[in-house]
């Protein structure tokens, strides 16, 4: 069977299986008097999130990469709004241009250029105060801009670059399914078994039990969907699962400490049951370059 059809079949079966599991779990928790709020809202939102990414992934490389460019811009926009950078239109405009610049080597399939992009991003941001002849508040604005374009532009664009390589569809699907399983496993395990806070000052609701539950589910799915990355050895599969699970949790905590510092609960309300785009894609952003470069180190899929 063609990999595209296999992925479509896997997604539909996973959504069906997860929905069936939630039916049983909801019933048990309701009997126990411990219902989980918004569990069905979170589940149904996936039917909105998945198609715009899955179909271009399978059938159009350039559309998939363009969607990720657009997503990077939206994520930066959400970030700029909450940290106050949006007030400086000049900086924001430069950052938008830089994010587009991040994707040029991807559309051209130039890996060497792609690797050194952060150097140019930093240089261009540091030139802004010089060109404007200003210095007040420039350190703060420059640092916020460099973090924004590097994190939401270059970090996330690794997913788009993977679409250029042989077997890239399988790698991306594998990454997506493990990141999602980590989020789902951590969320459900934390709600059911959570007792001990993981990092209470940053994310009071995230627990050690949820963290372990996420790891277990990621390892399980890494073997369940092994056929999409047949070259991975058992050891490498477990190692990558741990990197994705731990890295995904760190990505969540990175956005959490930003929210705590700013006094926010969520970055927005665009995705029912999930919050803003940053709340949904925080794990993927952090994990993408880790997965990309580790797999490339192990299997040299791009020179």
TrEMBL record:
<keyword id="KW-1133">Transmembrane helix</keyword>
<dbReference type="Pfam" id="PF01148">
    <property type="entry name" value="CTP_transf_1"/>
</dbReference>
<protein>
    <recommendedName>
        <fullName>Phosphatidate cytidylyltransferase</fullName>
        <ecNumber>2.7.7.41</ecNumber>
    </recommendedName>
</protein>
<keyword id="KW-0548">Nucleotidyltransferase</keyword>
<keyword id="KW-0808">Transferase</keyword>
<dbReference type="GO" id="GO:0016024">
    <property type="term" value="P:CDP-diacylglycerol biosynthetic process"/>
</dbReference>
<feature type="transmembrane region" description="Helical">
    <location>
        <begin position="143"/>
        <end position="162"/>
    </location>
</feature>
<feature type="transmembrane region" description="Helical">
    <location>
        <begin position="234"/>
        <end position="255"/>
    </location>
</feature>
<comment type="pathway">
    <text>Phospholipid metabolism; CDP-diacylglycerol biosynthesis; CDP-diacylglycerol from sn-glycerol 3-phosphate: step 3/3.</text>
</comment>
<dbReference type="InterPro" id="IPR000374">
    <property type="entry name" value="PC_trans"/>
</dbReference>
<feature type="transmembrane region" description="Helical">
    <location>
        <begin position="43"/>
        <end position="76"/>
    </location>
</feature>
<keyword id="KW-0472">Membrane</keyword>
<comment type="similarity">
    <text>Belongs to the CDS family.</text>
</comment>
<keyword id="KW-0812">Transmembrane</keyword>
<feature type="transmembrane region" description="Helical">
    <location>
        <begin position="88"/>
        <end position="106"/>
    </location>
</feature>
<dbReference type="GO" id="GO:0004605">
    <property type="term" value="F:phosphatidate cytidylyltransferase activity"/>
</dbReference>
<feature type="transmembrane region" description="Helical">
    <location>
        <begin position="168"/>
        <end position="189"/>
    </location>
</feature>
<dbReference type="GO" id="GO:0005886">
    <property type="term" value="C:plasma membrane"/>
</dbReference>
<dbReference type="GO" id="GO:0009273">
    <property type="term" value="P:peptidoglycan-based cell wall biogenesis"/>
</dbReference>
<feature type="transmembrane region" description="Helical">
    <location>
        <begin position="112"/>
        <end position="131"/>
    </location>
</feature>
<feature type="transmembrane region" description="Helical">
    <location>
        <begin position="210"/>
        <end position="228"/>
    </location>
</feature>
């Amino acid at each position: 069977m063609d990999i595209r059809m296999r992925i479509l079949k896997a997604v539909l079966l996973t959504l069906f299986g997860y929905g069936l599991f939630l039916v049983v779990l909801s019933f048990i928790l309701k009997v126990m008097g411990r219902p989980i709020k918004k569990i069905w809202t979170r589940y149904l939102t996936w039917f909105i999130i998945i198609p715009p990414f899955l179909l271009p992934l399978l059938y159009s490389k350039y559309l998939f990469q363009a969607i990720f460019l657009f997503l990077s811009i939206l994520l930066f926009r959400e970030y700029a709004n909450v940290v106050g950078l949006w007030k400086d239109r000049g900086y924001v405009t430069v950052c938008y241009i830089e994010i587009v610049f991040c994707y040029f080597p991807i559309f051209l399939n130039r890996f060497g250029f792609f690797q050194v992009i952060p150097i140019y991003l930093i240089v261009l941001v540091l030139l802004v105060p010089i060109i404007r002849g200003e210095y007040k508040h420039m350190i703060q604005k420059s640092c916020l801009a460099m973090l924004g374009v590097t994190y939401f532009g270059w970090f996330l664009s690794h997913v788009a670059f993977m679409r250029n390589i042989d077997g890239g569809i399988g790698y991306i699907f594998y990454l997506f399914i493990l990141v999602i399983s980590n989020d789902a496993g951590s969320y459900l395990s934390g709600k059911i078994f959570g007792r001990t806070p993981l990092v209470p000052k940053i994310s009071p609701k995230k627990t050690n039990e949820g963290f372990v539950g996420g790891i277990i589910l990621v390892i399980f799915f890494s073997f369940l969907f092994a056929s999409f990355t047949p070259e991975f050895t058992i050891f490498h599969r477990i190692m990558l699962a741990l990197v994705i699970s731990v890295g995904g949790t760190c990505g969540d905590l990175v956005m959490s400490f930003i929210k705590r510092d700013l006094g926010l609960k969520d970055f927005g309300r665009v995705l029912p049951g999930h919050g803003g785009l940053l709340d949904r894609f925080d794990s993927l952003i952090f994990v993408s370059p880790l997965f990309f470069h580790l797999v490339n180190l192990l299997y040299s899929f791009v020179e």
